[in-house]
Amino acid sequence: MISMTGYASHRVSIAGVNYTITIKSWNNRFLDVSLQLPGSLQAIERNCREAIEQRIHRGKVECSVRSDGNLATSGVLVNRENLANALVALRSMRDLAGIEEPLTLANLLAFENILQFDKAIDGDEFWLAFQPALVQCIQDFDADRRREGAATRLDIQAKLEILSSAIQAIGQQVPVMDAAIKNGLRSRFEEVMGSLVDENRILAEIAAYLAKHTINEELVRFKAHLAAFQAAMDEVACGKKLDFISQELNREANTIGSKNCLSEMALLVIVIKEAVENIREQIRNIE
Question: What pTM does this model have?
Answer without folding.
Answer: 0.69
